[in-house]
Design goal:
304 residues, alpha/beta, eight-stranded parallel β-barrel, 12 helices, 46% helix, globular, disordered N terminus
């Protein structure tokens, strides 16, 4: 619900503060590794994540089947029980299919839904708004809208977000818009919980009233990223800034060096002996030079 004085209080985190956009582990043969997913999910929660986003971009959702998506939710729910929220990525470019995935995710045990703006067809804003409203009307779970125009080709404009905030089940935004002014505008006029979807913005968005983050880099340094928020909450803003800056080279290596986050996260996890497995085509694994660079950046963050 919109409110004139929403900026007076920080946005409430409906799914937690420290969310990991979890990779989807596969076996070496390429099938879904549910045992690996359970072990990874439990580790992430043990290391400070209070929410897990499944079947998002980092989870390679375009290459997993509807059945695999539901199986993944059930397996992770069993592994983490109620220790963390589970937000299921269900967004597609087809409204009808998205509704079907939303209902299946609810049945499988998800706590919330992540719904990306329709991609490829590039609908105008009135159609984008109608798409989200139809899904929110059909689903029984709270929804986070996923604004990532660099991938979808379609922005969820701030005015559209402000109107959508009136829907009782639309409660959050995963923000990858790179429009920091637009994000603050929506924060000031609604009660939507804004989650940074780009790791370099984790602290900056939190500092202006954001709810936390949905992080790809948290797959490999969950405790460190959580410590940034903890330091800020404790009033140690300078310490929070130092911790964020310490992670910056790894964030750049994983997210801005030419390889998708699913590829880089799986590369690091594999080198650490943690569940990951291969990526599915059309993605390809990182080469040795890239892996070595990622490990160097990782070790710089985690060294005592």
């Amino acid at each position: 619900m919109t409110t004139a004085d929403a900026s007076a209080t920080p946005s409430r985190p409906p799914f937690g503060r420290a969310l990991c956009a979890m990779i989807t582990p596969f076996t070496q043969a390429g099938s879904l590794d549910l045992d690996g997913a359970q072990r990874l999910a439990a580790r992430l929660v043990d290391e400070g994540c209070d929410g897990l986003v499944l079947s998002g971009t980092t989870g390679e959702s375009p290459t997993t089947t509807d059945t695999e998506k539901s199986d993944l939710i059930r397996a992770v729910r069993e592994a983490v029980d109620e220790r963390a929220s589970i937000v299921a990525g269900v967004g597609t470019f087809d409204t009808r299919h998205t509704v079907e995935l939303a209902l299946a995710a609810e049945k499988a045990g998800a706590d919330g839904l992540l719904v990306v703006s329709p991609y490829y067809s590039r609908p105008p804003q009135d159609a984008v708004e109608a798409h989200f409203r139809e899904i929110a009307d059909a689903a029984g779970l709270p929804i986070a809208l996923y604004d990532i125009p660099g991938r979808t080709g379609t922005r969820i404009e701030p005015e559209t977000l402000i109107r959508l905030a009136e829907h009782p089940r639309i409660v959050a935004v995963k923000d990858c818009s790179y429009d920091f002014l637009g994000a603050q505008k929506v924060l000031g006029r609604t009660e939507l919980a804004f989650y940074a979807g780009c790791d370099e913005h984790n602290l900056a968005l939190y500092a202006v009233g954001g709810a936390g983050y949905v992080s790809t880099v948290a797959n490999v340094i969950p405790r460190h990223l959580r410590s940034v928020l903890d330091a800020f909450d404790a009033g140690d803003t300078a310490g929070a800034a130092r911790l964020q800056q310490r992670a910056t080279p790894l964030i750049e290596s994983m997210m801005s060096a030419g390889l998708p986050g699913a590829v880089t996260a799986k590369a690091v996890l594999g080198e650490l002996g943690l569940p990951a497995g291969p990526v599915r085509a059309p993605l390809r694994p990182a080469g040795r030079e890239a892996v070595d660079g990622l490990l160097t950046a990782y070790e710089a963050v985690t060294a005592d």
